[in-house]
Request: fold
Amino acid sequence: MNLRVGKKALQMAALAAAAGYLHKASNALKRVRKPWEDHYDLSLQLCQARAEVELSLGHFELGYRLCNEVVDKAKTLDQKLQTYFLMAHALGRENKHVESLSLSLSVAHMLNVLPRRCYLMHITRDILKIRSYLKNHTDDEILELPLLDDQRMGIAMRICSEIVYRGMIVNDTMLFLLQGCKLIKMTMKYGICVGSAIGFMTMGMIFDRLMNDYASALRCANIALRMMKLTGWDYFAGLVDIGTNEYIYRFSLPDEEIDRLNRSAYHRSMKAGDFEVGLLMLKFRYVAHYLQDYTLQEMGESIEHALQQSQIYRVTSMDETSITLLRLSKTLRCAEKTDWARIEVQSQRDLRRDPPDLSRLYDIKWEFFTSSALAYYDGRHELSYRLMRLFRHVADKNEPFQLIKHRLFLSGLTASAMYKQTKQGMYRRKLCSQLKTLRTIVANKGDSLCLCKLLMEAEHQSLSDAKGNPAKIQKVLNAYEAVIQAAVKETSMQITALGYDLAAEYLIRCKEQAGGQRGRGNGGDGDGDGSGLEEIVSDGAIRQYLLQALDHYHAWGCQLRIDYIVRHRREYVGNWHPTKP
Reply:
């Protein structure tokens, strides 16, 4: 009776109640001298249920001990499969992604769903076959495939789905591609299950990143979500949501819509007991806050909330990313002192001699970004550029939208700053590369990166020598004004402030160049007589841009940049104090 009620409570995600009933059942069974011999089926079911409950509650030591008991005592592989899956998923929750992947691969070999040898040409052949299948079948025809009724194959596809997820985290592209294709081939042969949705989600990412076919990527994402509805939004529903929302839809859908989808996905995952993926949804939301209409204080509060949730549910997967971005929020606000000595050492890391732990790739990637952003806002551009170069070289495959956006944003800014400082062509070429990528994404996928594109276009125009020509200077200022207007429309406080800040710095450079030309007796570039130059690069114009930048940095909460501007541009801003609302 206690076992039956405990399993029912487990299905309803009433974990504490389930643990209580199952513990009573276990105590009752202990009265039997040889429970596994005398009551094998009962012992197996009870041990499996208790293992699932304890792992879900984050009692990992006890949960693994129960799992090992099932693996040791169970008579057949089929009776062990669900337990192997639970162990692999629990290891991932503990941020042990490499160990989780290793266990899943071992089970996949036992099930003969993983080839002993695989080459890129085999994966390419599978991708082309799947592409042909999609061309010859409508979405409705694909969704009319029967539902999978083979329990062993269902567990096998769950194991393959786990491999896809962990392979993505540890940046193993071959495994990610191989198992994504395998899931679709198994769907075509055996029918639809939750793993089928993972397969089509993966194929959507493949179409987008490897084949530059965003229309097919959107189609696969839509099929994946419809398959999840068919299977009742099972355990992996949140993973499908992450793949479709953060790797595909976010390029074309507005932030408000993605935020709504992510909130729904969070609640779905938590209800299903997939706390790791549910809390990962929270992380994606606050990462987006950095360039959206949130103050640094609000961003920090949302991160602290996510960390509290992680402690409650005992999920440490990617918690270091949360801690790193919380530090970014605090140090930009000057609520925490910046450790520049540590950041300098970090920037000199040799990734070949000191490669990052594969389970921590994304944590380390965000550490580089955080340090680079701090260095940029404190005017340490060479340091910031070095850190962004390290950021680009870690986990550079299968990046979600947020990593792509932040990479293009800060890589472009640091490259532009370094060109202004050194006039070396390599930095201008790097900015051009980021701008080209942004233009391609906006043209082919949607407007989600349009604001970043406008900012990089303004920066690119500002690098050309205006030679004292008022019309050319005004053209660059118009480009910055377009950035500011777009940022205000999207309520991005950071980019609004940056637009004013960079426009002011551009005018200061033009003023210095004009002064140098007058000193040499050179009045311009031949396109005009230089009339109006004094007005356009006047101290008053520079002051207005800087004051607007300071007000918006203050609204955002970036005291680090405010202190830098007041320290280095005091002749324009004096002893600036924030205006009262």
Summary: The radius of gyration is 28 Å. The first helix runs from residue 2 to 11.
